[in-house]
Amino acid sequence: MGAQRGDVLAMVVGEGLAMAPIGVAIGVALSLALTRVLTAFLFGVGPRDMATFAAVCISLVAASCLASYVPVRRATRVDPIRALRHE
Question: Is 25 contained in some domain?
């Protein structure tokens, strides 16, 4: 209560983006550790292709940003009094 919409938006999106690098780092470490297994599933791309790793990492961080931004944007448009009355 009493927080500005921009502050709430920045806080929630910031928390969502704070978790994204952790997940990306774990995923990259596991994929590098399992390169022999992954080679059977890759066609036309090497198991340690850095351009592919970078593209996937950027895509995952962008998806994390969007997944946290869309719901909080909708939630900040709700009037707090209406939300409290509904509860």
Answer: yes
Q: What is the number of structural domains in the chain?
A: 1
Q: Which of 40, 42, 72, 71 is nearest to 56 (CA)?
A: 42
Give the pLDDT of the chain (87 residues) as one tens digit per residue.
677 888 888 888 888 888 888 999 999 899 888 887 878 877 888 777 888 889 989 999 999 989 988 988 888 888 777 777 876
Residue 49 CA: distances (Å) to CA of 24, 35, 37, 41, 56: 16, 11, 15, 14, 11
Q: What are phi and psi of 20, to 5 degrees?
A: -60, -50
Asked whether residue 73 is assigned to any structural domain, the reply reads: yes
Domain membership flag for residue 32: yes
| Domain limits for position 70 | 5-38+47-81
Query: Which structure tokens are listed for 11?
Result: 């806080």
Quick check: 35 and 47 in contact, CB under 8 A?
yes
